[in-house]
Amino acid sequence: MDFSILITNFWSLGLDGIVVGAIYALISLGYTLVYGVLRLINFAHSEIFMIGTMSAYFVILQFGFTGYEDPLPLLEFVGIFLLLATVSAIVSGGSAVLLEIVAYRRLRIMKASRLSSLISAIGASFVLVEVFRVMTDSKNLDFPRLINKDPFFTWGTLYLSADKVLVIVGAAIIFLILNRIINHTKLGLGIRAVSQDERTAILMGVNVNRIISYTFLLGGVLAGVGSAFYMVFYETTKSNVGFLVGISAFTAAVLGGIGNVKGALYGSFALGLVQQYTSAVLGYNWRDVVTFVILVLVLLIKPTGLFGEALQKARV
Amino acid sequence: MKKIISIVSASALAVGLTVAAAPSAFAACAGDLKIYFQGAQTGPYAETGINEANGVILAIEKYNKTNPKTKVAYDVIDTEASGSKSPALAAKVVADECAIGVVGGMYSGETLAAVPIYEGGKVPVVSPSATNPALTNKSPYFHRVVGSDLVQGPALAQIAIGLKSKLFVVDDATAYGKGLATIVKKSASKIIVGTDGVTEGTTNFTSVVAKVAKSKATAVFYGGYYPEAAIFIKALRDNPATKKVAFIAGDGVLDGEYIKLAKKNAEGTYLTAPGEPMDKVAPALAKEYKTRFGQEHGLYTLEAYNSAYVLLQGIKAGKTTRESLNTWLGEAVVKAVGSTISFSATGDPDKIVMNQYTIKKGKMVWVKKLS
Questions:
Q1: Which residues contact A232 (CB under 8 A, 6 or more apart)?
Q2: Model confidence pLDDT, tens digit, residues A130-156
Q3: Partner-chain contact A5 B204, CB within 8 Å
Q4: How far apart are CA B197 and CA B179, in angstroms?
Q5: pLDDT above 60 for A305
Q6: List of domains in chain B
Q7: CB contact under 8 A, A142 and B260
Q8: A9 at B interface, C-beta within 8 A
Q9: Considering only CA atoms, which of A2, A5, A27 is closest in space to residue A272?
Q10: A304: helix, coil or strand?
Q11: Domains and CATH numbers, chain A
């Protein structure tokens, strides 16, 4: 147990935690938005993220990079990255909408119990992982180095490189756009209305089915963009990549208060930082232990999370 | 009439039960004897597994050409090198009456899990590449043609000591990785400056790299397999503080897939393996392999070939039941390709070799034999 590393590497670990947290945030927003409107935990959302990484891999495959070339010049990289993010966003968003139609809609129409929807979610998750496992031969897929990762700014042990800046700035832009959508558009109004009280929303003329589809689409698009950031940063993926990333993102959403957008953001950054600091002090293999302990503690002590609503108020 | 029918049916039932309860020697193999290969054919470790399986196929095909009357068939169980998948598949092999021997498992975890099943079915097993020390003396039915990590660990420690380095040790919590790392830690205890552990499937090595940088290590030993090693070495080379550390790893990392995943970062990695360089000790066979399969051989292709060769020699000597083949294995001295193979009472080979390799210009290169 080496606590001194907290002092020597405080800022660098903090930066890495923020980067990881930003990726978690993009995914946890999907969990939290869907929970907000449906009171359903979309366990297959981690696979929506995985599908995004796969589509990014597929796109980059078309370019024929061998992986031995030098990183791309900045303008070219930005162009390719925007292409990756757009394709991943469309594919993930589309998959999420399809997932809702196939796995959840009929159960909702039949007013099935929430347990059935949960089982359907887990089943959908298995199906997607296995389909991609077969398609990729269970192999690790690697991503060529597109961006120059040499640090351009150093301060003690802190190394600032372009990929970290990309993730943080890119995620910040996405959050600002999302904030506009949720708070200043009719769609956002509809989402907030359905989250608050579905019946009254229907009485107010909100098309609930359409709002739910849009919510899945929105969550999927965010996960797709997150997957593009993930691929540039980690440069690898495989069929079960969604599992651990999804669990961390889900824990972050619960930590912040599931159903609450602000909570998902803060919870994600908090979890990212906690993970980095604990793995530096205790060792990396304790990271997932800490994640799950936090999840269990939050559920036991404050199930509504840091910013969540009181559970009694939640519509059953 | 009724009495006669009941007597006849009762006796028929009695005969049927006796036959069913009779020892499985009655249920003989309907076709050719089979040798199974246990290992990964899909999954992240598939490349090593396919190269081993092909070695077994080549051995069987060559044998069948010169022994057309007693042909041997080849079959495979794809465990993805996983210890959770191997027991069920091993049971499938045991239930196959034609299965006379197994070349495998490929990795230590899957072998440790499967050997008890094979022992129950009295199936002789010869592993070409499982190196965990716990397999020594594990079962009278288990043999292997490679030395255990009790030899590989100290060899790796010697490399680190020879570099006059400050060593940081990382393991991946698998039977193989953690086992090897523990031995390295013991052998190189004077030069260790830090340790960490990851899990299979880790992609985020930033905290591990931070620890390595802080410990001012000049060499890193990774106990584990190539998928994670490739990501780890990339992360080390990306961080200016750890850009120049020497990267040392065992045979789990020595694979073409490592070079493919780590690319330029794989250059100069210090690697060991208890396998012989096929191009050096069996160049003719290496060429045959390339012609037959259209690709270069892998690290343990020769060992897999020899493991199958040993089993085939036993079958040729008339040992066509599992137990007789196993007994024969315990005493046999076989002149295989590039080496003479015989097993000690514990299942380990009598002659143990250890070799050092490195990656140069994107290719696996043999460096020297280690004593």
A1: A81, A84, A143, A146, A147, A163, A166, A167
A2: 999 999 888 888 888 888 888 888 888
A3: no
A4: 12
A5: yes
A6: 33-147+278-352 (3.40.50.2300), 150-273 (3.40.50.2300)
A7: yes
A8: yes
A9: A27
A10: coil
A11: 24-148+170-313 (1.10.3470)
- How far apart (Å, rounded) are the C-alpha atoms in residues B271 and B363? 13
B262–chain A nearest CA distance, Å: 9
Contact yes or no for B240 and A159 at CB 8 A:
yes
At residue B76, what are phi and psi to the nearest 5 degrees? -145, 145
Record: contact B261-A285, CB cut-off 8 A: no
Structure token digits, residue B29: 């193999």
Tokens read off for B33: 């004897």
Q: Residue B82 and residue A170: Cα distance in Å, rounded?
A: 39
Spatial contact of B125 and B115, defined as CB atoms under 8 Å apart? yes
pTM: 0.84
Interface membership of A279 toward B (CB under 8 Å): yes
Q: Cβ contact (<8 Å) for A284 and B208?
A: yes
- Asked if B263 reaches chain A (Cβ–Cβ under 8 Å), the answer is yes
Chain A within 8 Å of B230 (Cβ-Cβ)? Answer: yes
The answer to whether B210 contacts A13, with C-beta atoms less than 8 Å apart, is yes
CA dist B128 and B51 (Å) reads: 11
Residue pLDDT, tens place only, A240-269? 899 989 989 999 999 998 888 888 899 999
Which residue out of A154, A229, A279 would a mutagenesis test of the B interface target, given it has the greatest number of B Cβ atoms within 10 Å?
A: A279
B149 in contact with A at a CB cutoff of 8 Å? no
Contacts A139 to B, Cβ<8 Å: 42-44, 46
Q: Kindly report, residue by residue over A21-72, the tens digit of the pLDDT.
A: 999 999 999 999 999 888 889 999 999 999 999 999 999 999 888 777 788 8
- Count other C-beta atoms under 10 Å from residue B345's C-beta: 8
The CA angle A53-A55-A56, to the nearest 5 degrees, is 65
Given an 8 Å threshold on Cβ–Cβ distance, is B210 in contact with A12? yes
Place of tokens 């036991």: A300
Give this complex's ipTM. Answer: 0.85
From B226, which residue of chain A is nearest by alpha-carbon distance? A140
Percentage, residues of chain A above pLDDT 70: 97
Is the CB of A164 inside 8 Å of chain B's CB atoms? no
Low-confidence residues of chain B: pLDDT under 70: 9-27
